[in-house]
Amino acid sequence: MKHLDCVVMAMTLFSSQMSYSASFYEQLEAVQLGDAHFDAQGRVETAGDIDQKVVCLRPMRKGLPNISAENVGEQVRVHLYGHGGSGWTLLWGSVDRAMALFEEKAKEHKLNEHVPITVIGAGCMGKVVALSLYHAGYRNIRIVAEQDDSIASLNSTGYLAMVSLATENESEKKQAEQLAIDTLKGYKKVEQGTHPIINEGVHLVDVYSGLGKEGEEGPLETYTGIEPYAEAGLLPKPENGVVKFSTGVSYPMRKFQTYFMDTSVLMEAFDRELKTRNIPVIHETVGSLDDIKTYVVFNCSGLGAAKLNHDDKVYPNMGLLLELAHQPLKKLDYIIYTRYQPPGAPKRIGPMDKADVYFMPRRGGLLGATFIDHNDGSDKALNEELFSKILRENKQFFGYPQN
Ligand SMILES: Cc1cc2nc3c(=O)[nH]c(=O)nc-3n(C[C@H](O)[C@H](O)[C@H](O)COP(=O)(O)OP(=O)(O)OC[C@H]3O[C@@H](n4cnc5c(N)ncnc54)[C@H](O)[C@@H]3O)c2cc1C
Q: How many domains does the chain contain in total?
């Protein structure tokens, strides 16, 4: 890795000549996509580098996630759901908020540590709530969940950034940012080995996004969702520089730093902790909150809350991921999160506020992602079209010849 301090470099881009002030110069291994081939219509013909295609749904909620507590007869119900594509990013802050609301109710109802508690949902919210309750002294806890594999929490890419919430005004945005900042503090403790619940699965990673202007070709300027942390001085300020990939292609890019959360490592660690504390995970579908008879219920059911809590603000947002194989992973410890205008391709239309090129170093490495509101993932033809687009554009971005 080479750093050039404030050197003015003349860079030749795809389509334009520009003078550019660069504070770093990085040589990075390219993701290996040379084996992917496409037919005349742009559909994937062969893709030896793909391990599996994943279709997954983010539990979006119009406005903010629901973090609230209510009395229903003698029962205390705490709701904690609707974190969209930022559930891991808001995890510790959201659980702390839910726990504080619960402790107020526990005082009001004079509950003791033996009160029976049901947590609905075995995603990151449900599992961390159960462990936090244990840490707070409660000893009669069970999790009830329809499933704990193929869920959003496990498929999540693990990028700590506020990129996928449905906040509708400044006040909601500020509240979400506060949850994100509280969560970042939690991950810092995880990384430093001082978190009371868990101490693995998280590390800092460089994130690269484009600098191109609207209408240009190549990687374009992008909102990465890390900006609020950088502005608050909680993560390093971004720098502009040059990235050259091992294929020979190079781009001016902006470099951020954030936490990468290895969600499969974290979920496994939560499972181990639950087992050690004898907190059972019962596989059952809850038809109605009224069917749960324990004094306390935590509703961490993600998308399931649309039905369970009759919440019409909850809706799915589809994310597609291509999990990779055969990658030189040790050399790929970086994130690419950028909008991208492929050279020679028709100019994009419609909202372009999310990344097109999205590489995360999770498991074997993955490419993604789509962010499609109100889509339940059942349109297989559309999914295939989008998988081809993801692979085609990533192959082009990483500097492989198109064919
Ligand atoms: C493709 C993709 C990429 C993502 N990337 C990121 C990222 O980079 N960074 C980030 O911060 N976030 C990301 N997310 C979002 C994040 O994964 C979610 O916000 C988070 O996992 C939500 O956690 P949860 O526990 O609320 O819900 P889930 O993980 O969906 O868990 C819900 C649980 O409730 C259970 N349940 C539902 N209904 C019932 C019922 N009736 N009875 C019993 N059980 C029920 C389910 O079976 C499940 O166990 C991503 C999501 C997707 C899909």
A: 2
Q: What is the DSSP letter of 2?
A: B
Domain that holds residue 79: 63-197+262-312
Residue among 143, 281, 301, 359 whose CB has most ligand 1 atoms within 8 A, to mutate:
301
Let me know whether 242 and 308 are in one domain.
no
Mutate to test the pocket of ligand 1, among 143, 156, 354 (most ligand atoms within 8 A of CB): 156
Whether residues 321 and 389 share a domain: the answer is yes
Q: Is the pLDDT of residue 10 over 60?
A: no
User: Do 268 and 243 share a structural domain?
Assistant: no
For residue 85, the ligand 1 atom closest to its alpha carbon is 15
Question: CA-to-CA distance for 94 and 81, rounded, in angstroms?
Answer: 9
CA–CA gap between residue 348 and residue 331 (Å, rounded): 32
Residue ranges around ligand 1 (CB below 6 Å): 56-59, 81, 83-89, 120-126, 144-148, 151-153, 155-159, 285-286, 300-302, 304, 308, 319, 321, 369
Neighbours of 228 (CB within 10 A): 19
- Residue 180 scores a pLDDT above 80: yes
Q: Are 90 and 100 in contact (CB under 8 A)?
A: no
C-alpha closest to that of 390 among 151, 87, 49: 49
Is pLDDT of 352 > 70? no
- Model pTM score: 0.93
Structure tokens at 400: 């492989």
